[in-house]
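B., you asked whether I could sanity-check this one before it goes into the benchmark set. Here's the sequence:
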Amino acid sequence: NRIEETCAIARRSLEAEGVRQKKHFDKKAKFRTFQKGDRVLLLLPCKTNKLELAWRGPYNVEERVGEADYKIK
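And here's what the prediction gave me:
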């Protein structure tokens, strides 16, 4: 079926583009780690304007609770 073939081609193309974009992002991305007592800012999602950033803080890092998650106070 021609529609199924077209969908399969589109799916493979999207997957390849996703891999390409991830490689490009990972070139400049930095994985940050924090220690207890470090002072950090918290980025809150902004519902009214996605281009507006809402930063709060600074907060103190209390403990690491995941690979990239921290408990702050």
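One thing to flag: Residues 31-73 form one domain. Otherwise nothing jumped out at me.
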